[in-house]
Design goal:
The chain has 353 residues and is an alpha+beta fold. It is built from eleven helices and twelve strands. Strands 1-2-3-4-5-12-6-11-10-9-8-7 form a twelve-stranded mixed sheet, with helices on both faces. It is globular.
Length: 353
């Protein structure tokens, strides 16, 4: 094994033990812990005044991934006592096979505000990094770099400083942008393509996957989806609204091959936990992509404008999306041109191996 191998650079621990914390029980999570952990997440979000609340399904999602198991990839911390205690700390390590530019491992977790300052956060992050090194060592793509990432809102909760002490560095700034739908919208455009609502159409869903994989190929941190993972993590996700999602089809291509006619897509999600109130729903643009060979025709803007009008027709009061501030495709300028403005920022911290 050469020093260029990811496994050699990762220098993973053979056996990784859970951290020992005086007065606390530390064990892996099981599926039945998800609701209790979500309660802890909500408490942390409120205390830290974060702008984005984790969708409830995100915690359960990894349990359905065939390459993932909770035993080696999660930790749950509860106080030791005579009664069953609510969790006060949690950590998760996730990834998706099929790396292209880097083997990426995402880490998430948190500590109850009342239990901070006792080394718990430091122990959880150190354990996550050690577990990520094991994932790197076992990866098929040994010729690629390894990246551990964590998304952070700039809040005075000590997390950025904790990550920095563990070797993480700010790598990318993302902009959460929003637009009020009671303001004038651009008129729906004509682009020489046809828009079709994805709904339950398998052909359109597959076309959307292909556009996503090619359209985002050069984006920072992007990774292609295989058909099964695309169905499970995107199309069947409980926040996805395929009735508000659409594919742009090129009518000049053969009509009998729907996936190959797809040249653009817009995926919509609804995230009620992040609405200002139940009476003020917001449509969220999960993905907007156009194949490189079809850019410059106004397809992306037309898809976005069509979605905004559709959101308003369905009673939504605003639209939101997340944009990479360093995206070279001009996406931020497109969003601003139709009225989106930055609402908050999120920073991706990365540890490169």
């Amino acid at each position: 094994m050469s020093e260029s191998d990811l496994a050699a650079r990762a220098a993973a621990t053979g056996v990784l033990s859970a951290p020992v914390l005086a007065g606390y029980d530390v064990r892996p999570m099981v599926r039945d812990d998800v609701d209790a952990v979500l309660g802890l997440v909500r408490l942390i979000e409120t205390a830290d005044q974060v702008g984005w609340r984790m969708p409830a399904g995100d915690l359960a999602e990894p349990f359905a991934d065939p390459w993932w198991a909770p035993g080696p990839n999660t930790l749950l911390i509860t106080p030791i006592g005579p009664a069953v205690a609510a969790p006060v700390g949690w950590a998760v390590v996730t990834w998706r096979p099929g790396a292209v530019d880097a083997v990426r491992v995402h880490v998430d977790g948190g500590v109850h505000p009342g239990h901070r300052g006792r080394g718990m956060g430091r122990a959880l992050v150190a354990w996550q990094v050690a577990r990520a090194r094991q994932v790197f060592a076992a990866a098929d793509e040994q010729y690629l770099p390894g990246v551990v990432d964590r998304w952070v809102e700039p809040r005075p909760n000590g997390l950025p400083e904790l990550l920095s002490r563990q070797g993480f560095e700010p790598a990318r700034t993302y902009l959460e942008m929003a637009l009020a739908l009671d303001s004038p919208l651009p008129e729906r455009g004509v682009t020489g393509v046809e828009f079709s609502v994805i709904g339950g159409d398998l052909g359109l869903g597959e076309g959307a996957r292909r556009v996503n994989n090619v359209g985002f190929a050069e984006h920072h941190g992007s990774q292609p989806f295989d058909p099964e993972t695309w169905q499970r993590q995107i199309l069947q996700r409980d926040t996805s609204r395929l009735d508000l999602s659409m594919v742009a089809l090129d009518p000049s291509l053969p009509a009998d091959d729907v996936p190959d006619r797809a040249v653009g897509l817009l995926l919509t999600g609804l995230y009620p936990d992040n609405w200002p109130s139940p009476q003020r729903p917001e449509g969220w643009v999960d993905d907007l992509a156009v194949l490189p060979g079809h850019r410059g025709r106004g397809i992306g803007k037309a898809l976005l404008v069509e979605a905004l009008h559709t959101y308003r027709e369905h009673g939504m009061v605003s639209a939101g999306l997340m944009a990479d501030s360093e995206n070279g495709s001009g996406a931020v300028g497109l969003y601003e041109s139709v009225g989106f403005r930055t609402r908050r920022t999120v920073i991706s911290y990365e540890l490169r191996i």
